[in-house]
Amino acid sequence: MLLSYQFKEQVKIFRSKNGRNISAVTADCYKLTHRRINEFLLKKYKKKDIIIQDIDLVFLEHFYTYLRKEYNCSNNTSIKYMKRFAAILNFAEKIGLLKINPFKLFRFHIEKKYPLYLTEDEVNLITHKIFLTDRLNRIRDVFVFCCWTGLSYRDVCNLKISDIQFRNKQYWLIIVRQKTNNISQIPLLDVPLKILEKYHPDFHEYPCEKPLFSISSNQRTNEYLKEITNLCGIRKNISFHVARHTFATLALNKGVSLESVSKILGHTNIRTTMIYANVTNQKIESEMKKMRN
User: Among 72, 90, 227, 276, which is least packed by CB within 10 angstroms?
Assistant: First the structure.
């Protein structure tokens, strides 16, 4: 069985109700993995395809090295590619197409890394900075909005005015996260509410399917964010996803429970949220004050 055929057929199965039911975003990640394997096959073996039974541990190790050198992928990013590759061969083994699975010998080593985030002072610095172009001001507003709501880039791109609901004297964002299909219910704090009113002053009167924000591509947005942090004197290499890390860290520092943060972020497993429970100096100071009292 050729690997290309197996990739395409198994992604279809993974997307079906009888399979893993993966999202369109995850399916695109599998397609990207398949494309990288095809590029590797052409460069290393001068082949357009390979029989899955011919894949061995040496092939896997060379592909991992190819990702590290050719695309300058970090170890953890490369391992994500390898895990998607492994899912294809593992499934092939389960249905009897593969007797010897080389991934049983491959070592999946994840390097422990703490997520990059902004402090509250840094968020406030960005919030109150006045930029000379509408482009930077708009990206700043969307980024800060996500720092106080925990939304990802894809989720904020899909956000509509109709996603805002008024419950118990409080405005809420009620969305289905694109990555996990989990429902996130997020109470709007003062800062994101002011940003919302800035772009849609009558949002509460005319709920509709109109997009909440107009935003550039993820790559272009990240370039603008680098401009913003440079102009603010913040020496951190941030991307838009840092807003999500920032929300989780701010919430935990403010005393919001890990369970609540997990639900707001739409995580399927609270262990995913625990990575944000990195104890900061602010948290240590707060806890020691309690102990002192």
Answer: 72
In the listed set 38, 70, 104, which residue is the last one of a domain according to the structure? 104
CATH number at residue 186: 1.10.443.10
Nearest CA to 43 among 24, 71, 73?
71
Using the Cα atoms of residue 283, residue 288, residue 290 and residue 293 in order, give the sign of their dihedral. Answer: negative
The pTM of this model reads 0.74
| CATH for 52 | 1.10.150
DSSP 51: B
Instruction: Tell whether 83 and 129 lie within a shared domain.
Output: no
Do 68 and 78 form a contact (C-beta atoms < 8 A)? Answer: yes
Q: Which carries the bigger pLDDT value, residue 177 or residue 188?
A: 188
Domain total in the chain: 2
Domain that holds residue 156: 120-292
pLDDT digits (tens, 9 = 90+) for 62-107: 999 999 999 999 999 999 999 999 999 999 999 999 999 999 999 9
At 281, is the pLDDT very low, low, confident or very high (cuts 50, 70, 90)? low
DSSP letters spanning 118-154: --HHHHHHHHHPPPSSHHHHHHHHHHHHHHTT---HH
